[in-house]
Each structure stands twice: as structure tokens, then as C-alpha cells.
Amino acid sequence: MRLNKFISESGVCSRREADAWITAGRVTVNGKRAALGTQVTGEDVVLLDGQPLAAGRKEVYLLLNKPRGITCTTERHVADNIVDLIGHRERIFPIGRLDKDSEGLILLTNNGDIVNEILRVEHGHEKEYLVTVERRVTATFLAMMAGGVKIGGEKTKPCVVTKTGPDTFRIVLTQGLNRQIRRMCSALGFRVQRLQRVRIMHIRIGTLAPGHWRDLTDAEIRPLLAARASRTAAG
């Protein structure tokens, strides 16, 4: 098994974070500094910052209604970070991001192996948002948003956009470019006043209050694990 996968399955981080830790020299295998691509087995001694990885940790899956002003980072020195907001006993990290000025549904876990399943664009998973802009939403604006908007030198994928009020709309994306909705709106001359994510795939925020979190139900977790298992078998 590749070392980054071994580390992520211990529940401490994602594979991408594991690669960064390996590159930074924080990981050793059998007493020697590890390199990217190192292969390990259960017989090898893998240490992170000189400490053994926890084994057999229970997988945790949480849903948080992130308030505006909270930063989606595991760096504890950052003020108002998402980890301190939750205060969970396990070492968890967010799956993807919501920028500091946005709010709503974000998932957190200690299972680094599930992250790619949810975030990879080619998997086409839906994410749904409610958006308020500073002026009246027009039919032209909705059509241009739905057809794709050129930002950062590339055109966004077609998406579903529905007007919900004079200055509000619902948008369902299957990709996740950095600050995508805000940049799409800006390119069309609109400024976002409020941005709330209400759904990721089959998981909805429901009536959960801002700043509160809950464990995912078995019914919510099962499709995530099933999708991961099917892709692993196919690959």
C-alpha cells in the first residue's frame, strides 16, 4: 500500500495532506525519512512527528452548518477555525471548503480515503446552494449562469439555476472551482451578498441551526461507502 493511503486510512488526514507531511520530512518508515510513493505493509513502523499512527480508529462523519466567519482549516493557530468550533474528540478535517464569508453544509471526517470520492470533479456529485445578490435577478442572468460563465480563463460547466425570489436563486453545481459562484456572479456584474450551501449529493442541511453539527446517519453514510467500494473494485 502506498504510504499516503496508509496514513489517510489511519484517520489523521487526507492523502493530499499526507503527501505534504511526507515531503516536509514529518514521516518516517522503520526509522528512515519517508519519500513520496513509498510502499508499506502492516509490518512496517510508520511514525508521524516521531509518534505512531493510531490504529483501528472509529470512522467519523459529521455535518456542520458552518456560520459565516469560520475558516475551513485544521490549522489551530488560525482564529475561528472549523476544528475548534466543533471541538470533536477525534482528529477530523473538512471535506472540501466553504470560504470564510459563505455558510451552510460542510462535511468533516477522519477518513481521508473518502475525500477523493466526494471531491473529484469527474464523479459529478451535486452541490446545491442558495444565493442572494445585491440586485434583481433577470432571466438573462439565469440563462448565462446555467450555460456556463468564463472565469479564470475557463468556462464553467453547465448547471441548474432557478430563481427563488427577486434577488435570490438556487444553483446546483457538479464542479468546485475556487469561489466559483462568487466569481461567476461577478463576471456577469452581480455581487453576492449571501451564499449558503444546503446539499452535497444526497445529504441535506435540513433544519440544523448555524454553528451546530450532527453525526451523519447510517442511511447518509452508506451511499458514500458504496460509491467508494464500487470505484475501488472497478479500478
Give the CATH class of the largest domain. Answer: Alpha Beta
Number of DSSP helical runs: 7
What gross morphology would you assign? elongated
Overall residue-averaged pLDDT value: 90
H/E topology pattern: HHEEEEEHEEHEHEEEEHEEEH
List segments where confidence is low: pLDDT < 50 over at least 5 consecutive residues. none
Structural class: alpha+beta
Distance between the termini: 15 Å
CA gyration radius, whole angstroms: 20 Å
Strand content: 25-35%
The counted number of beta strands is 15
User: In the CATH hierarchy, what is the architecture of the largest domain at level 2?
Assistant: 2-Layer Sandwich
Question: What fold name goes in the CATH topology slot of the largest domain?
Answer: Alpha-Beta Plaits
Largest sheet: 9 strands, mixed
CATH homologous group name of the largest domain: Pseudouridine synthase I, catalytic domain, N-terminal subdomain
Number of domains: 3
State the helicity in percent bands: 25-40%
